[in-house]
Amino acid sequence: MHKLFKALLMSMVAFSAIFLATGCSAETGKPAQETANSNKFPAFQTVDVAGNPVTQDIFKGKKITVVNIWGTFCPPCIEEMPELGKWAREMPQDAQIIGLVCDAIGPSDKETTAAAVKILKDANASFVNILPDDNLLKYLESIDAVPTTIFVDSDGNIIGEKVIGADVAKYKQQVKGYLK
């Protein structure tokens, strides 16, 4: 019985490691590995989780913006949020991070917004997190897994390699390489 329990425990640990490395399916919460391919981030006019207006002008004035696409249903997304919050406070002046709450069905989605606000507060992650407008909802249709993290330059161009799954060290490596 002890060997069976140990084998079951090891299987659960292995599954958890795979789950955390690959992320959640944006629709089902199951592991997935593909995302959108586009070299221009869509124009948008929306609000953040606090109701403040946000447009693609958020990218201007920064050499690089880390866009973390995440969902309130996704354990790996939630687990990386404290580290993202800490990193956002330490970023150089020419870089920033923003979140995109993928499971909100628009700026008027009060239930998902409330869940996102609680997650961000609990994680001490005070960086801007936006709710998708129609253009971003259309863009999110091509995102298969969260977290998916992309990198955007000051002109709104998607640059570098997207990162699928929770891997803050990899995000930092990309930003550091771009800012050199």
UniProtKB/TrEMBL annotation:
Broad class of where this protein is predominantly found: other
Domain named Thioredoxin: residues: 35-180
SUPFAM superfamilies assigned: Thioredoxin-like (SSF52833)
Keyword presence, tRNA-binding: no
Compartments, as annotated in UniProt: Cell envelope
InterPro entries: Redoxin, Thioredoxin-like_sf, Thioredoxin_domain, Thioredoxin_ResA/DsbE_sf
MF GO annotations: oxidoreductase activity
Keyword NAD: no
Name this polypeptide is given: TlpA family protein disulfide reductase
Organism: Selenomonas caprae
